[in-house]
Amino acid sequence: MLIPEIETRSLEEIKLYQEKELKKLLEYLQNNSKFYASSFKRHKIEVSAINTLEDLRYIPLTTKEDLQLHGPDFVCVDKNQIVDYITTSGTLGEPVIFALTDNDLNRLAYNEYLGFMCAGCTSHDVFQLMTTIDRRFMAGLAYFLGSRMLKSAMVRVGNGIPELQWDSIQRFSPTTLVAVPSFILNIIDYAEKNGIDHRASSVRKAVFIGDSIRNTDFSLNTLGKKISERWPELQLYSTYASTEMATSFTECEHGIGGHHHPDLIIVEFLDEHDKPLPPGVPGEVTVTTLGVEGMPLLRFKTGDISTAHVEPCRCGRNSIRLGPVIGRKKQMIKYKGTTLYPPALYDILENIDGIRNYVVEVYTNQIGTDEILIRIGATDHSEAFEKVIKDHFRAKLRVAPSISFETVDYISSLQHPPMSRKPVKLIDRRS
With 60 as the cut, is the pLDDT of residue 195 above it? Predict the structure, then answer.
């Protein structure tokens, strides 16, 4: 397995390396970014005085709103250097446009190449891509480019259609699936209903995008356990990424967090007052991209809450690891005096037999506080089943949200709206 030398160095050596790269980035932004040059001038920041990672605290944070309001001002290259346009998923607002150069695509390929290497993949693997490569989606493109750099084969099936997925598995004998983890359960359901022995198939690994499969202690959560129990031969690898960071954090075989690639990104963890937090304390993941040419970002607040782990990994990497995402800062729910993140609700719902699918709806009630309605697709709509569901919530979270039983098809339509590139589990209607 190839591990970049920088990832095997001590944390102090990694820090010194990143500080040199940060100096190059600041100079590049000063000379090429209208947004950051204006920000430096407005806040009286001399980029030559920023010498350490600790000095980053003197630089204002970049937010999603900044990108939405001033998108073109972040572009650092002439229009004729742009070779691809990407947009974010728009989960918390209007999608943001990202412009990529040819060098950015090469960097994207290298990033996913490193991710596949973390997951123990080689040129002998055959990947089956179960996420879209179109619809302006970065992830599918990144996986495809990473596979090419790894010199492996990829079957680009796209999302959905279990029948086509199994047809492709049987035709091309892929070894590794790239998918949203909840979709794997659909794949297993289809196999069992149609006499396909999924456990005897060629597939031996799954690299997951989107939903987390682990708890904060790295044990498998309910979703992860369900997949593992029904397909024990499948090795599961969790990833964390976002369009804005153009970088992914992928687990190795030890499953104790996504590995940081220091030559691609600087990561901070900030508290609610935007102050740095020590390792082991959950904070908002805040990133500075390295090596991005088209639209590099400086101290971008992702909105995701996670934890840094700094102990060396048995795989030989010494760079930090990101723990499972606890939730999104803007999706935090204050419900009847209890602070909740949607993943905690999902984990309970995934663990209740009889629930086929669901959507969590959050809205502001008449007195101005958060209210939760869980729309559930199930065949049992009885009061007794509703009580079972609420008892599970009370046991785990001490509060029970409102329940609305719907048809499975209706919930499926909510989960897969026409323009969505990923399954929708949360509908946030709060004012």
Answer: yes
User: d(Cα 105, Cα 84) in Å, to the nearest integer?
Assistant: 8
- Residue 66, pLDDT score: 94
Cβ neighbours of 134 (radius 10 Å):
10
What's the token pair of residue 75? 């572009």
**249-253: long-range contacts at Cβ-Cβ below 8 A with a sequence spacing of 24 or more?**
249/321, 249/322, 250/114, 250/115, 250/116, 250/118, 250/119, 250/207, 251/118, 251/119, 252/118, 252/119, 252/120, 252/313, 252/315, 252/317, 253/119, 253/120, 253/315
User: Over the stretch 300-326, which tens digit does the pLDDT of each residue have?
Assistant: 999 899 999 999 999 999 999 999 988
In CATH terms, 5-101+267-315 corresponds, of 1.10.940.10, 3.40.50.12780, 3.40.640.10, 1.10.8.50, to 3.40.50.12780
Give the Å distances, CA to CA, from 9 to 13, 320, 424.
Answer: 6, 11, 40
The whole-angstrom separation of Cα 425 and Cα 274 is 28
Helix spans in 205-337 (H): 222-230
Q: What is the mean pLDDT of residues 136-160?
A: 93
CATH class of 106-242: alpha beta
pTM of the model: 0.81
∠131-88-69 over CA atoms, to 5°? 175
Domain borders along the chain are: 5-101+267-315, 106-242, 332-428
Does residue 146 contact residue 109 with C-beta atoms inside 8 Å?
A: yes
Residue 430 main-chain phi, psi, to 5 deg: -65, 140
Residue 55: phi and psi, rounded to 5, are: -70, -15
Taking 3-state DSSP, the helix, strand and coil percentages for the chain, each rounded to the nearest 5, stand at 35, 25, 40
* Contact assessment for residue 173 and residue 126, using Cβ atoms and an 8 Å cutoff: yes
**Rounded CA gap, 98 and 12, in Å?**
33
Three-state DSSP at 214 gives strand
**Amino acid in position 75:** V
The whole-angstrom separation of Cα 384 and Cα 129 is 41
Q: Which of the four pLDDT bands, split at 50, 70 and 90, describes residue 274?
A: very high
Q: What is the largest CA-CA distance in the chain?
A: 68
Rounded CA-CA distance 341/71 in Å is 29
CA count, 13 A, side-chain hemisphere, 328: 14
Q: For CA atoms 407, 412, 417, 418, give the dihedral sign.
A: negative
